[in-house]
Amino acid sequence: PNPIYRKDYKPTPYLVEHVYLDFLLNEDKSTVKSKLSMTPNYENSSSTPKLELDGRKDLTLISVSVNGKAVSEADYERTDKKLTINNLPQGKFDLEIVVDIKPQENTSLEGLYKSGGNFCTQCEAEGFRGITYFLDRPDVMAKYTTRIEADAKAYPVLLGNGNVLEKGSAAAGRHFVVWEDPWPKPCYLFALVAGDLACQEDVFHTVSGRDITLRIYTEAKDIHNVSWAMDSLKQAMKWDEETFGLEYDLDLFNIVAVSDFNMGAMENKSLNIFNSRLVIASPSTSTDLDYSRVEGVVAHEYFHNWTGNRVTCRDWFQLTLKEGLTVFRDQEFSSDMNSRPVKRIEDVSRLRTAQFTEDAGSMAHPIRPDSYIKMDNFYTLTVYEKGAEIVRLYRTLLGKDGFRKGMDLYFKRHDGQAVTCDDFRNAMADANKKDLTSFAAWYGQAGTPQVKVSPVYDASGRTLTLKVSQHIPATPGQAHKKPVPIPLAVGLLASDGSEMPLHLKGEAGEAATTKVLLVEEAQQDFVFTEVPEKPVLSALRDFSAPVKLQVEGQTDAELVFLLAHDSDPFCRWEAGQTLLRALLTTLYHAARDQKEPELEDRLAAAGGVPESVTSALGSLLTSKDLDGMFIAAGISLPAATELIGDIPNIDPLLLHNVRKYVVKQLAARLRPQLEATVKQNESAPGDSFVPGEFDQAARRAVKNKALGYLSALDDPAVHADLLERTRSATNMTDQISALAGLADSECPERKTALEELYKQWKDDSLVMLKWIALQAGANVPGNLKNVEKLVEHPAFSIKNPNACYSLFLSFLRSAVNFHAADGSGYKFIADSVLKVDKINRQVAARIVSSSAFTALKDYDLERAQMMREQLTRISAENGLSENVFEIVSKSLE
Ligand code: HT7
Ligand code: ZN
Description:
Layout: E1 4-5, E2 14-24, E3 30-40, E4 51-54, E5 60-66, E6 69-70, E7 76-78, E8 82-85, E9 93-101, E10 111-115, E11 118-122, E12 142-151, E13 157-160, E14 163-170, E15 174-185, E16 192-195, E17 198-205, E18 211-218, H1 227-244, E19 252-258, E20 265-266, E21 271-275, H2 288-303, E22 312-313, H3 319-337, H4 340-360, E23 371-372, H5 381-414, E24 418-419, H6 421-432, H7 440-444, E25 450-458, E26 463-471, E27 486-493, E28 503-504, E29 515-519, E30 523-529, E31 536-539, E32 548-551, H8 556-565, H9 569-593, H10 599-605, H11 611-622, H12 628-634, H13 652-669, H14 671-680, H15 694-711, H16 716-728, H17 732-743, H18 748-761, H19 765-776, H20 784-792, H21 801-812, H22 815-818, H23 824-837, H24 841-849, H25 861-875, H26 882-892
Parallel strand pairs: 2-12, 18-19, 19-21, 22-24, 25-32
Antiparallel strand pairs: 1-23, 2-3, 3-9, 4-8, 5-6, 5-9, 7-8, 10-11, 11-16, 12-15, 13-16, 14-15, 17-18, 20-21, 25-26, 26-30, 27-29, 27-31, 28-30
Helix pairs in contact: 1-2, 2-3, 3-4, 3-5, 4-5, 5-6, 8-9, 8-11, 9-13, 12-15, 14-15, 15-17, 16-17, 16-18, 17-19, 18-19, 19-21, 21-23, 23-24, 23-25, 24-26, 25-26
The structure holds (3S)-3-amino-4-(1H-indol-3-yl)butanoic acid and zinc ion (ZN).
GO molecular function: aminopeptidase activity; metallopeptidase activity; zinc ion binding
Family: Belongs to the peptidase M1 family.
InterPro entries: Aminopeptidase_N-like_N, Aminopeptidase_N-like_N_sf, PepN_Ig-like_sf, Peptidase_M1, Peptidase_M1_dom, Peptidase_M1_pepN, Peptidase_M1_pepN_C, Peptidase_M1_pepN_C_sf
């Protein structure tokens, strides 16, 4: 397969003004008739250019005509991927195409397919070409009119984009609806749903006094569990009006939940389609995390109406233009709805554990990639999450008002257009009269910048000099990088824990206690004056840039001090994490360098867990002025993946065991405090679960974190208590946390609890996803056998993406079983990828790209070799999809 390059972008020679679609939906085959009003987009010339339409080999072409006349076979050519039409007339013309398709056989879940007996679509990125031949690219924006016809009994609900223009009955018990969308859009935002669905309706009054009808559709059994999604939608609509002055632009907004969906959700114009796990929520089946995900994703898709739909991307390389910006917007929304510090910590943890790894692996790419084989492979954490961090840089630098001015100018200039990331940056720059040219480097370079800060205090001059340097490691295809502009937010703490007023040399103005330094060079000094005593540096406040920071000479005592006193909640949390990362690294090295005696003794001989760390975490745990969510995050150990890459040729099993040792030591020493925490945060009998109620959720978070620690003690009394909790829990957060505590323990209660949960919830497919995930990810030795059985279990279906993610992605996280020394875990994943690829290439690609296979060079030589063998085996498979091929071949380079 040939890569597509960003530098090759060219506008199309034809544009489409209007698209008329007629869908005749049937059980055996469906017919799609399209009429496109085409308009020339080329320089005048004597001959007309050819028109190359995108398509797929499973389209059965019935007819092609231009201005009502059939195109002769001599005037068009067809390949598996294209329909090329020659000798077109000068000027505007109408092109009519009829194709047959078989949605019921479409297991890829791209284009038009069936889920739970209903028809639905997924067109981003390039699914529309699976529905009919078209100019399937985002810079072709057209108005759409869609007629949908189907059997009235089987498919009573027929939904499309925009407003209903007409509806009625048709022959043979069929009915039809015609939808019209007045807003020009790219075809990736086209959607259709036909099915037997229940609906919950509500209304939103806009700031300008219009009433918008809101409807959520699900299978009848789930419709009583959509209130949280509906409330989230209304909150999001209000927030966007208040925060960015953005009002909804149609009279109807629909959300449809489907159970077979490759990603989370899709922002089709006025007809969002959602993975059911991100719409349906009830206290007894959904955790606090599920609730916050529903809230965040409902908002994210809604926000796309402006950032993505009204202003869209010129080409797919610009994906971060809409995704980075919309993630930033949903992060801000969730911060305003809940706890801002906790949200920031969650987002940074995700970035660190998954995006930093991606940025250091074989698939590393800039937020605006230079090339791809399959665009589907670039819906990544880099494009989404790092992209959001780059948007955040503008906000940090320009302030809230400056950022808003930039957004206003962006919409003023580009409403109704398909644009680039440069257009966004220019709007930010021009609205604020700033030169932001150097920020282009963030869009073109992969890799996580490593920033070193050396604070040098001069007592006689009362100055503190911060010597800052940056380096971006090499990534595939990019050996040398130039410095990027890094807003580095810093504060200085006095010995009593107070914040010092900051005076930056060469800068007048009021002394603030947080200062954003703009680091633009490879090495740069910043001097603070009037510093009365040697301060403790608090750096990268609020995680002001997506970098890895190292403060030279920072002592454990300083970290403990920051953990106790920093006024910046992110840095406070970060101090604890830095302490723990250092501890895990030290113990890992101690354990690796000797083979005798037993691991626990080696670790103890290396100093074990120092008292300073235990007491710092103990103080956090018992703190009265912090909420339970923050405490839970503060006492969590950094994920193993945060250390992979930093420790060369890592043995993942040894790291897992070191981590386990630290958890157990902390649990043993802090047992009284942990037990007290559980007791104090127990919900009172009769307390009812209130979705989104922060205090309740915070108490559950810290209680369950404490129980998680206690479960590491291997104490039969704890196991019995956890089993009892799985039985008596009144909400899913508590029930699944208790089960998680047992899932990694080799005790009789584990089996009982798993069996009981299955019996209780076997008819609820969303709870079954959790049940599968807990078992597949368990770190009990020899668990592969159970996981292989799970694949055959009735609760699992290989055709369902959610089930595949629950099983295979969770298995990838089990250090003990995925990284088993005999390579059996690697073989199981390779076999599974090959099986899934025959059914759904996007899901298969997501499994490989989430695996350690893409970072094999970071692992010990034996494991790296075993991973390479499995990748080679996958790459040799006949009929391998381009999706999997791209990831596997890059990982083998
Ligand atoms: N914009 C949506 C992307 C998406 C997608 C991409 C590839 C294949 C399937 C997909 N489903 C949804 C989701 C979003 O970011 O809002
Ligand atoms: Zn999105």
